[in-house]
Records
---
Amino acid sequence: MPELPEVETIRIGLEPRLIGQTITSVEILHSKTLTLEQVSSSIIGHKITGLGRQAKILIIELSNHLSLLVHLKMTGQMVLVEASGQRLAGGHPTKSMAAELPDGSTRIIFGFASGDCLFFNDQRKFGWIQIVPTAEISSHNFISRLGPEPLGTDFTLPSFKAALKRHPKSPIKAVILDQSTVAGIGNIYADEALHLAKIHPATKAGNLTPAQIKRLFEAIKTIIASGIEHGGTSFAHYVNALGGKGDYLDHARVFRRTGQPCPVCATTIIKIRVAGRGTHVCPKCQKAPKV
């Protein structure tokens, strides 16, 4: 599943190419993603006025005060094929990004007056698009449960401390993966932030010292900002909306670096399981909690 930096990279890449485009057609090839009943005349014929993001959700705002909420889930793609033939893609990297479209993974095709087409592809069919009034986005059943954005003004040290207090017996990795604690963090950036903060992922949230909580708070902001700066990750899952691969993993501290030296102390990085997830740690920098 893409994390915040990946979705933000897609938003940045598509924004200048979609804003101002008028939707002239919507072809639905898989009704689970979006049903025909949801596509009314109030959508077709209206312009895209903005591209936003909430956590891992891409938001396409329309001129009639409706918005499309797009969740790529595990294998979703957004592929913009311009009338000129230029192609911009973001999401799970498969041959569909460069193949003739539509293909077997295509779920929805948005046509524009310019002749451009936006394809929503999803091999595993877990992704979804929903149409909601723009004014009601904050009360949407998914978005309303989200915690603050890690780079937003609502993400403060006091609010972070309060969120941790709600789960004192849970491993800190599980707590920061919980989207109600802070929005947009997944397995990659959780491992990275915990390493930067020098906290073992299995440490109970209630056992963290004030100094550790502050370090983790700052580390989350630093790691997410770095992920955006470097275009997100790509490895086997995501490429960015400019058609190139994100290079964050070239700068990763521990994630997918099992057996390699820690960039801080040169101790060999190991992989364990915490909260049911593969987890990368430095045994020296991140001391395991006492049982």
Note: Residues 145 and 219 are 23 Å apart (CA to CA).
---
Amino acid sequence: LSEIGSVLFVDESFIDFVVEEESYISLINHYPIFIMRSMTKFFAIPGLRLGYGIGNKELISILSSKKEPWTLNSLALRALPVVLDDEEYISKTLTWYENEKKFLFNELQKLDFIKVFESSANFFLCRLKGYDSKTLKDNLLKKNIYVRTCEDFIGIDDNYIRLAVKKHVENMRLIDELRNLKYREELCNEKKL
């Protein structure tokens, strides 16, 4: 990277959800790497826009000289020590997340029209069999359930969606609607015969 004057930008926005994976922090002093972290995902505070970057001193110095003077608002600054000191929230969130992620993965695996891929983040990439992502998304939107289509991801076509791990009741609702959607389609196909 240094030979071509480039910096590797690593997005670790979801790293707090991933206990078993390693960060790239150990490499920042050996390579031109900048790591971005978000606190809004794990702590569920998206409106505060709280995050930080990690890099070697030289890279941070260059970036600091080019940034605007106010990168954090006063609410985010006030929230920072509160969220970092809330060990009970961190522990409960990790326990909840691990259980809910397993539940959602197992339930998605039971659906024959979805191939779910294992994930280190708090969402799953799924390949649809017999559906395109837009049709599935439109059907679920009628039930006020939003899924992320992936047709704009490089190397992925319109047969892929991304499903986030959410509260149990929301995950159950998603699974129920996916089952119902498949059931309704099968009924329609039987009537056509």
Note: Helices lie at 57-66, 74-85, 87-109, 133-141, 168-192.
